[in-house]
Design goal:
With 100 residues, this protein is mainly α. It folds into two domains: 67 residues, lambda repressor-like DNA-binding domains (434 Repressor (Amino-terminal Domain), Orthogonal Bundle), CATH 1.10.260.40; 31 residues. It is built from seven helices and no strands. α2 packs across α3 and α2 crosses α4. The two termini are 21 Å apart. The mean pLDDT is 88.
Protein backbone atom coordinates (compact mmCIF):
# COMPACT_ATOMS: atom_id res chain seq x y z
CA UNK A 1 0.00 0.00 0.00
CA UNK A 2 1.16 3.51 -0.76
CA UNK A 3 0.96 5.01 2.73
CA UNK A 4 1.47 8.62 1.65
CA UNK A 5 -1.04 8.13 -1.14
CA UNK A 6 -3.58 6.85 1.38
CA UNK A 7 -2.98 9.85 3.65
CA UNK A 8 -3.46 12.15 0.66
CA UNK A 9 -6.65 10.31 -0.31
CA UNK A 10 -8.13 10.64 3.18
CA UNK A 11 -7.23 14.33 3.29
CA UNK A 12 -8.82 14.94 -0.11
CA UNK A 13 -12.00 13.17 1.02
CA UNK A 14 -12.19 15.66 3.88
CA UNK A 15 -11.09 18.67 1.86
CA UNK A 16 -8.07 19.09 4.15
CA UNK A 17 -4.66 20.52 3.39
CA UNK A 18 -1.53 18.97 4.85
CA UNK A 19 -1.38 21.91 7.23
CA UNK A 20 -4.87 21.09 8.50
CA UNK A 21 -3.91 17.43 8.93
CA UNK A 22 -0.83 18.41 10.93
CA UNK A 23 -3.02 20.53 13.24
CA UNK A 24 -5.66 17.80 13.65
CA UNK A 25 -3.02 15.10 14.23
CA UNK A 26 -1.09 17.29 16.66
CA UNK A 27 2.16 16.83 14.75
CA UNK A 28 4.37 19.51 13.29
CA UNK A 29 3.76 20.60 9.74
CA UNK A 30 7.51 20.11 9.20
CA UNK A 31 7.21 16.43 10.11
CA UNK A 32 4.43 15.92 7.60
CA UNK A 33 6.20 17.93 4.91
CA UNK A 34 9.38 15.89 5.42
CA UNK A 35 7.47 12.63 4.96
CA UNK A 36 6.29 13.80 1.55
CA UNK A 37 9.52 15.50 0.48
CA UNK A 38 11.63 12.47 1.38
CA UNK A 39 8.93 10.02 0.26
CA UNK A 40 9.30 8.07 3.52
CA UNK A 41 6.88 5.94 5.47
CA UNK A 42 5.80 7.45 8.79
CA UNK A 43 6.79 5.74 12.02
CA UNK A 44 4.05 3.85 13.83
CA UNK A 45 3.57 6.61 16.44
CA UNK A 46 3.35 9.24 13.69
CA UNK A 47 0.91 7.12 11.69
CA UNK A 48 -1.18 6.59 14.83
CA UNK A 49 -1.30 10.36 15.35
CA UNK A 50 -2.26 10.91 11.70
CA UNK A 51 -5.01 8.29 11.95
CA UNK A 52 -6.30 9.85 15.17
CA UNK A 53 -6.34 13.25 13.47
CA UNK A 54 -8.24 11.80 10.52
CA UNK A 55 -10.64 10.00 12.84
CA UNK A 56 -9.82 6.51 11.52
CA UNK A 57 -8.30 3.46 13.15
CA UNK A 58 -5.14 1.86 11.83
CA UNK A 59 -7.22 -1.03 10.51
CA UNK A 60 -9.50 1.39 8.67
CA UNK A 61 -6.45 3.16 7.27
CA UNK A 62 -5.14 -0.07 5.74
CA UNK A 63 -8.54 -1.52 4.74
CA UNK A 64 -9.54 -1.61 1.10
CA UNK A 65 -12.80 0.23 0.61
CA UNK A 66 -15.20 -0.21 3.50
CA UNK A 67 -13.98 -3.70 4.37
CA UNK A 68 -13.36 -4.50 8.00
CA UNK A 69 -9.93 -5.84 8.78
CA UNK A 70 -9.89 -9.14 10.61
CA UNK A 71 -6.98 -9.80 12.95
CA UNK A 72 -5.77 -13.27 13.77
CA UNK A 73 -4.95 -14.31 17.34
CA UNK A 74 -1.25 -13.44 17.04
CA UNK A 75 -2.01 -9.99 15.63
CA UNK A 76 -4.48 -9.32 18.44
CA UNK A 77 -1.87 -10.43 20.97
CA UNK A 78 0.69 -8.08 19.41
CA UNK A 79 -1.70 -5.13 19.58
CA UNK A 80 -2.55 -5.94 23.18
CA UNK A 81 1.14 -5.98 24.01
CA UNK A 82 1.64 -2.69 22.13
CA UNK A 83 -0.97 -1.05 24.36
CA UNK A 84 1.04 -1.95 27.47
CA UNK A 85 4.27 -0.33 26.24
CA UNK A 86 5.58 3.00 27.45
CA UNK A 87 5.93 5.80 24.91
CA UNK A 88 9.72 5.25 24.86
CA UNK A 89 9.20 1.55 24.12
CA UNK A 90 6.71 2.38 21.36
CA UNK A 91 9.29 4.68 19.82
CA UNK A 92 12.09 2.10 20.06
CA UNK A 93 10.12 -0.91 18.80
CA UNK A 94 9.89 0.09 15.11
CA UNK A 95 13.64 0.65 15.02
CA UNK A 96 14.23 -2.76 16.58
CA UNK A 97 11.93 -4.43 14.05
CA UNK A 98 13.70 -2.75 11.14
CA UNK A 99 16.99 -4.27 12.32
CA UNK A 100 15.61 -7.81 12.52
Amino acid sequence: MDTLGRITQLCEERGWSRYRLAKEANISHTTLRNLYNRNTIPSIPTLEAICAGLGVSLSQFFALGDEAVELDAKQKEMLSTWNTLTEDQKTALPELLKKM
